[in-house]
Design a protein that fits this description.
The chain is mainly alpha-helical. Among the domains are: about 120 residues, Tetratricopeptide repeat domain (Serine Threonine Protein Phosphatase 5, Tetratricopeptide repeat, Alpha Horseshoe), CATH 1.25.40; about 90 residues, Alpha Horseshoe (Serine Threonine Protein Phosphatase 5, Tetratricopeptide repeat), CATH 1.25.40.10. The protein has 20 helices and no strands. Helix 8 packs antiparallel against helix 9 and helix 9 packs antiparallel against helix 10.
């Protein structure tokens, strides 16, 4: 498949030499470069095309998609909003915009876009998978599995669909089913660093700590500078009580992605575990600014505040966490303990 795109690119290069100011050629070439993961080259072509033809919805959509791949999510959203005005019933625009909103943690907005995309194009496996992923974040796990199962029927060898399905089964503690899905992913794409991190999570949750370390280790070798993989790697080392190695990975991850709430939350949780409560609170406060509606982060911050004898502050966090996740035993236990400290027997 990639060879076919490479051949297409060669043809477009020749066309571009003959007519360098053709917006359609530039947009098509940008689209092909995006598929080949040459995002900077794609962006360069699409920028030129946009100057030549500023009201082209396809150019704006493709450029928005490329900006998303380059992690310029706000810029991506601006392009996709303009494209939507020009072409309001385009399922592809809704799907890509939904994916970008997901990255900006606007999960409700993402779901609205993906629902519209699904109505317009009900048999699009990618739309179903992204929607399933968003539903997972919103804790609608039944809806997630329904979407990803439909997507899997439509595209049985799609690694993203299988990975999402495996991750949801992990959350629901269906570890065997999760590993079966993730093993299929590994067969289809053995050198994908991201998908290797999730089997490690599954094995860790099912107490196979040796296996849990093996997969993130392979992922780390494949992608040494990936902040997410370093954080998963650190989490496994933490389970194995290698605290020095844990902080080494987390420090690297934080340098690579200093505004990641996930990394800061993990740092804070590890410091909490080691009873370094003041340092833990600093990390958790920063994580809270970046992701204020994370129930787990609020609960562990409350636990830290409790240890620092800030019971009122702890209770405030726990009340918020309880609203976000009312059936969480850990939150209820900590809240009960804090109320006891406040003599609210």
């Amino acid at each position: 498949m990639l060879q076919s795109y490479q051949g297409t690119l060669e043809d477009l290069d020749k066309t571009h030499v003959l007519n360098p100011n053709n917006a359609f050629t530039l947009t098509t070439r940008g689209d092909v470069k995006m598929v080949l993961k040459d995002y900077h080259g794609a962006f360069k072509d699409l920028d030129k095309a946009h100057v030549l033809d500023p009201n082209n919805a396809f150019t704006l959509t493709t450029r928005g998609n490329v900006k998303g791949a380059l992690k310029d999510y706000q810029g991506a959203l601006e392009d996709l909003d303009k494209a939507h005005v020009l072409d309001p019933n385009n399922a592809s625009i809704f799907t890509i915009r939904g994916d970008v909103k997901k990255m900006l943690t606007d999960h409700q907005g993402a779901l609205e876009d993906l629902d519209k995309a699904h109505v317009l194009d009900p048999n699009n496996a990618f739309t179903l998978t992204i929607r399933g992923d968003v539903k997972s974040v919103l804790k609608d796990y039944e809806g997630t599995l329904e979407d990803v199962h439909k997507a899997h029927v439509l595209d049985p060898n799609n690694t993203f669909t299988l990975t999402t399905c495996g991750d949801v089964k992990r959350v629901l503690e269906g570890y065997q089913g999760a590993l079966e899905d993730l093993d299929k992913v590994h067969v289809l794409d053995p050198n994908n660093a991201f998908t290797l991190t999730i089997p490690g999570n599954v094995k860790g949750a099912s107490k196979d700590y040796e296996g849990a370390f093996e997969d993130p280790n392979k992922a780390h070798v494949l992608d040494l500078n990936n902040a997410f993989i370093l954080t998963i790697h650190a989490n496994v080392k933490r389970v194995l009580k290698d605290h020095e190695g844990t902080f080494k990975d987390l420090d690297k991850a934080h340098v690579l992605s200093p505004k990641s709430a996930f990394i800061l939350k993990t740092c804070g949780d590890v410091k909490r575990e080691l009873k370094d409560y003041q340092a833990a609170l600093e990390d958790l406060d920063k994580a809270h600014v970046l992701d204020p509606n994370n129930a787990f982060a609020l609960t562990i911050r409350a636990d830290v505040k409790k240890m620092l004898e800030d019971y009122e502050g702890g209770l405030e966090d726990l009340d918020k966490a309880h609203v976000l996740d009312p059936n969480n035993a850990f939150t209820l236990t900590i809240r009960g303990d804090v109320k006891k400290m406040l003599k609210d027997h």
